[in-house]
Amino acid sequence: MDASKKDRKVYARMRMAQAIERAIDAPSAAGKARAARWAGAWGLVGGILTPGVRLRRSVLADRQPR
Length: 66
Hints:
Blueprint: H1 3-25, H2 29-45, H3 57-61
Helix pairs in contact: 1-2
């Protein structure tokens, strides 16, 4: 694994941990669900599979290419 790929994984896992903290601290169920989806997305980028968290297709399909 080259250094840049490893750096991206470390960054993604850091963002996943932040999203997990936001899910724990969220006052509403909707906020918890949103943060959990972000944690799942960052975990996926970081190479961690999250069987309990699913991303909504509408969120992924609405993305516009840069």
